[in-house]
Amino acid sequence: MSDKKLNKFNLQEVRETLANKGGQEYWRSMDQVAQTPEFEAWVEDEFPNRSSILQIDRRDFIKFMGASMMLAGMAGCRSMFLPTEKIVPYVNKPEDIIPGKALRFATVFTHNQSALGVLVTSYEGRPVKIEGNPSHPNSMGATDHFAQATILDLYDPDRSREVFKKNLPSSWDVLLREARGAMDATDKGKGIFILTESVLSPTLAAELSGLQKAFPAAAVVQYDAVNQDNVLEGSNIARGARLHPRYDLGGVDVIASFDGDFIQSMPENVRMSREFSDKRKTVEMNRLYVVESSPSLTGAMADHRRAVKPSQIEANLRALAQRLGVAGIESGAAKVDARFIAAMASDLGSAAKKVVIVGASASVASHAIAHAINEALSGSVTYHAPVVRQDASQIDALRGLTKAINAGQVGVLVVLGGNPTFDAPAQQPLIAPIHNTKSALELVSSLQNRPRSSYELVKAKHGVGKDTAQFEKWLNDGVITVAEKAVSAPALNPGFAASLPVQKVSSGLEIAFRPDPTLWDGRWANNGWMQELPKPLTTLTWDNPALIGPKMADDMGLSDGDHVNITLGKQTLRIPVCVTVGHPDDVVTLNFGNGRTEVGSVGHQAGQNVNILRTGLGFWDAAGATVAKAAGGMLESNHTDLALTQTHHSMEGRDIIRAFNRDEFAKEGMEKEEEGVSMYPSQEKEFPFDGPQWGMSIDLNVCTGCHACVTACQAENNIPVIGRMHVLKGREMHWMRIDRYYTVSAGGKQVDPRDEIDSPNHKQDVFNPDAVKTVMMPLACMHCEIAPCEPVCPVAATVHSHEGLNQMVYNRCVGTRYCSNNCPYKVRRFNFLNYTDNQPNFMDRTEVPYTWTITSSEKNNGRSLLKMIANPNVTVRGRGVMEKCTYCVQRINEARIEAKKEQREIKDGEVVTACQQACPSGAIVFGNIADKKSAVSKLKANKRNYTLLGELNTKNRTTYLAKLRNPNPELENA
């Protein structure tokens, strides 16, 4: 079967199929709705493309056979995959280090101009896992997928190893001597430019200030491809001061978001996600309105959502301000959904606690208007001095540097991090250093002829006089207890609204530039975990096609993977498309971050560089673009197979999702599950063990689909990256997946002009983005008490423990895959190849250029780096075994050992699985279901609790809480 045909479907047939369905039906992809023969063949084959393994020549076949025979004789031998080395004992053992005993260190992960407090688990000085710091206000014990993946970057063999001068190895002494000589030769620093990413570190900011004091004419330029320029300038217009809003969502009743993706892409998103979800778990649920120009996780969680063009965001904010009686705000240039705005304004006005959120991509005027709206509403927002100390906008500062370079005014340019040649607009210490490198902090200090370690510099900045004990406590906790207080925000400038230009609205196509959901601005392009992590809404991996809506795809005759030419100004980009349900009409979303030409072996030739279309004037969005279907040729195909994961598994249309409106559920509840008839004895008799019985509860009402759990599971359990080719074959190895389901129902009269193409009322239509509802569902091994996988295994490799875990014995597994065939949830992964030991980023040979010759140097320490990242408490699997979620049994064992040493029972909450610990929204709860007072038992007693495919009588240990929505009655049929 051709993979390429899988991406083909007829959109009109999809519409007709949905139009004939009544009620709510959830589906994962338009291929599934269309039920194309290719799609049916794909999902019916448990292991598609398996024949490709045998499509090899005789030499390779013998090589694979030899490897298979070794596996049969040596299965489970760690030395097969990792070289055997002699163990040399300590002469003087370092203090506090016990071999095999983990230590945890507090530190900070900086991302998107905010800081996330984390704890790093280390074995013998080797960091292997990142968790949230419960004491830190921004993490609250959780993380996001970016923080989880940072651990892989630490061991990236493509990282810089030493200092080079003109492509020849050099030294830090030479670099510092020549750099300082060049700086001293300037007139008080004239012509010296320091280009850096946004500086969040107070210590680094102080060192840069010290450098500028020594060289007064030197300039420090900060730039990030994802910045807060519009946020700060909007505050400056409204209040006369550059302030950053801090949205407090704790206990908020009504939230209105305008392109503000606070769940994933805004600063402090982990904290806001937890605060939003905490209110979502109560009977008095909050209500979320979202107006957005590109599908986001926040939009997926909305009770009411409107999909608009980027240029229409400001018009909607102006309409809301007018409806709320905010003086001086003119009408926008675009038509808005008046009924939607009126209902939202009424809800905001009557709520006890409310807030209006605006994202970084919105216009400067939008942010200024938001200040006025929140002021009128007494919105739940405080204002703080920006953590990035820079008066000018980052785009203007970079533009000034570009102008100076072109004019020959730059004598010394020091670049500290960032990648401005890639992500600039088109016109413009927990572990000792693995290689001979220095931190930016140490480098800036050395340039001032006073080299000091990072520890000494931080202590000098934050030390409290001679009270070293206080500093050491802060260092240990990872949190400075003297919290920064909100500033007293200046009053709104009177009449500021009259000076705001009204944003023009294009009648044609618009482009929305957004950071990639997994690669961000490209800094994780060489991170295999992030490249292979399915993007939450599209389930794409290893690529960044243009996202378009179904109507646009139908009008142009496009399907997933078809190429288009996007022209903006004088630049043309050839790129495949991905048809995205819920995407606004006449808008193309381009995710920047992929397509780097100078990058390591993982990110090489991955995706498209869309920055060629991004300019200073069209930084976040641009009008005037044209899109045309690309023609194929002898040298260039007009189609690219997209490595999507949404079609790889199917549960045959069974009742998967339980979703209700809050008020209806309160009145009617949920249909009670009937106890299945079984020939097996009851649980108590079947497992006569008086110890803990482990189980899990997942709340669909607060699962945002952020994928932090997936990355945390990968880091915890040594799950390999397999590459784009194998994802296309349906072989991704993640033990946990997030299924994304859609339903579209357009009931009542629609006010959107697209209604003329819609089906009759109460019919489903995928062409109407405003009618789309989204549900996320995490899925891993259900740990069935009556597990279908167990009786079919011929070698008893999958067995049941006395504590209710479905276990895999790798040493017995011979790879029949009967267990996966018999699993109705499709949560088992077969390790087709020895992915762990053959990853190109660890093993490829790379060309190292020198001025006098070119040599080829294998990454001979790649295997050593691979060993360093592995969790020593989890087996490193080789080819030919089935693997799956284990409920983090290694963490259960760790807690059991500690409890046994202290002669007590395991406490509730003492065992926290990796997915549970990472989850920002607190959707996952794990514990002992035999303890009726445990948190997980209480959730299983909740009236929203249900068993996935309970009619199969597998008696899952993982159950779900149904999703509730909280619609406004005034808009319920809109």
Mean pLDDT over the residues: 80
Largest sheet at a glance? Answer: 4 strands, parallel
> Regions with pLDDT < 50 over 5+ consecutive residues?
1-5, 58-87, 747-763, 845-860
Major sheet strand order = 11-10-9-12
Number of helices: 31
Strand-residue proportion: 15-25%
How far apart, in Å, are the first and last alpha carbons?
A: 43 Å
How many beta strands in the DSSP annotation? 37
Q: Radius of gyration, Cα only, in angstroms?
A: 28 Å
Q: Regarding quaternary structure, how should these chains be classified?
A: single chain
Structural class assignment: alpha/beta
Q: Tell me the domain tally.
A: 6
The share of residues in helices is: 25-40%
Shape: globular
Describe the structure.
This protein has 974 residues and is α/β, with parallel strands linked by helices. The chain has 6 domains: 55 residues, no CATH class; 53 residues, N-terminal domain of TfIIb (Single Sheet); 152 residues; 147 residues, Dimethylsulfoxide Reductase, domain 2, CATH 3.40.228; 135 residues, Barwin-like endoglucanases (Beta Barrel), CATH 2.40.40.20; 219 residues, no CATH class. Helix content is 27%, strand content 18%. It contains 31 helices and 37 strands. The strands form 14 sheets. Strands 11-10-9-12 form a 4-stranded parallel β-sheet. The protein has a 4-stranded mixed β-sheet with strand order 17-19-18-22. A hairpin with a 5-residue loop joins strand 28 and strand 29. Helix 6 packs parallel to helix 24, helix 8 packs parallel to helix 17 and helix 12 runs parallel beside helix 14. The longest helix is centred in the N-terminal third of the chain and has 17 residues. The protein is globular, with a radius of gyration of 28 Å. 47% of the residues are buried. The N terminus is likely disordered.
